[in-house]
Amino acid sequence: MNEPGPDREMPAIQPGDSFMQPRVFANLTTPLTDLQRAQAVILPVPYDLTSEWRSGSRHGPQAIIDASQYLELYDIELDREISEVGICTLPDVEPHLNGPQEMVDRVFRVTRPLAATGKLLVLLGGEHSISLGAVRAYKELFPGLSVLQLDAHADLRDEYMGTRYGQACVMRRISELCPICQVGVRSLSLEEMRFMTQQDMSPFYVFDLASDPGYIDRIVGSLSDDVYITIDVDVLDPSVMSAVGTPEPDGMSWQQVLDTVRSVASRRRVVAFDLVEFCPPEGPHSCAYLLAKLAYKLIGYCTVREGK
To answer: What does the pLDDT look like over 113-159, one tens digit per residue?
Structure first.
């Protein structure tokens, strides 16, 4: 194979040569991808420094964006092409390797001006710790903010593995900023149970959902007018979402998740949402596509209204 060397020049780029462009969500083109026009903004955050078991969620954002190339833009349920609202894909947020607190601060600094635009922000993680930076940014703009957490785990430890800002502590830190509603939980520590008891917190455990037909109304009723949704994808049943770093048996179905977020989006203002803890090496390619579809449908629920 002939390699370029001191005596060999690289071939000149000729006009008309074709090159692969960086992938954008759903393979959209201008004007749908223009930042000024778009109602939704995709922000990839490839970071997983505090993952303690199966790492790899740093590959999650790109895997979701890659899979989104194969989405059908027309959505049967909403009877329209969701992409018409405009979806801009921003460059990755560069990881800060000094520690999770510094990374949380970086996410805050990046998301704060985006939050001020009024566009729907979609964070693609990466580990769950990144959610704290975004919630901090939105809390400044929306003082009455509440957070809906869909997650297999409570993430309410005060400290874990020497830090108070890792993925196992993220909801403890968020609960210090604003009210939270936890849905789909099925694993927690004794420390977390004692904290929830002290704080009079009542999660919607996954094993109670089937016997509680009114759970969605109660979820919506617990939330304020302005809501940030954070979805740790291990909330889903492992039969449909095996690509996670800390899997738990049982879980919410695809339809349960859709029913929940659709109802919240129709009755509250969702200012931003994230999908975190997706670990592509741990599952089939279908997991990436499922999350691309979930992100796309959530954009639809949050931006498309009847008659608009």
So the answer is: 999 999 999 999 999 999 999 999 999 999 999 999 999 999 999 99
Residues present in the chain in total:
308
Residue pointed to by tokens 């599952």:
283
268 lies in some domain: yes
**Position 7 in a domain:** no
- Residue 192: domain span: 25-303
Cβ atoms of residues 210 and 216 within 8 Å: no
Residue 39 sits in a domain of what CATH number? 3.40.800.10
| Contact assessment for residue 246 and residue 234, using Cβ atoms and an 8 Å cutoff | yes
17 is a domain residue:
no
SS3 (DSSP) at 227: strand
Residue 54 domain-assigned (yes or no): yes
Confidence class of residue 99 from pLDDT cuts 50, 70 and 90?
confident
Based on the structure, what is the number of domains in the chain? 1
> What proportions of the chain, in percent to the nearest 5, are helix, strand and coil?
35, 20, 45
Q: In sequence order, which ranges of 41-189 are alpha helices (DSSP H)?
A: 60-67, 100-116, 130-141, 170-175
Q: Which two tokens stand for residue 206?
A: 């996954």
Q: State the pTM of this model.
A: 0.91
